[in-house]
What we know:
Layout (H helix, E strand, L loop, with lengths): L1 H17 L3 H5 L4 H26 L9 H19 L2 H5 L2 E11 L2 E6 H6 L10 E5 L3 E5 L2 E12 L2 E15 L2 E9 L9
Parallel strand pairs: 1-7
Antiparallel strand pairs: 1-2, 3-5, 4-5, 5-6, 6-7
Amino acid sequence: MHGCLAMHGRWAMYGRLRGVKMGAMLRDPSPSSSAASRASRIKRSALLLLGAAALTLPPVLHAETPQEAAVLAPVRRLFEGMAKADPALMRSALTKAGGMSSFRHGELKQYPLRDMVDNAPPGWKPGIFEEKIRNPIIHIDDNIAVVWAPYAFYIDKHPRHCGTDIFNLVKIDGKWLIAGAEDNSRENCAGW
């Protein structure tokens, strides 16, 4: 018995010197066992890498429900009208008396939403102005809804300012319209 323990001790010491645990030395060293073990380690490593990669990705966009798509439709129509320099398309997304509140350089500015359309800046033509949102958060309750989203406003394909857009929508005669909008802005738009 003593000799067996001594032998086990030598094997264990040999294994430690080679970086192998004793249990691994006593397993079946056949090629099929080694290949299966290697395949298992590769699978485990791949799963760990996928998990780590998933943690570095931005939040996954969920598929819009039909109701969310309907709420976003006037927001998209407003932006499409802006990009196409089409005031009628922009107006079709708005209620008649909606308001806008904007923070520009820390100062609050408030005006009727339709002023955004009616007082378009000089040089407004298709492809000059564009606004993009991403990862909108949408809350809906019966005939009212809110869309909250990071945005960037582009002039000639370059981000001019960015911030957060908030749209308040109402459902009138089965059609969603923007009743109010708020935004803030900053000029450091890295990542857009």
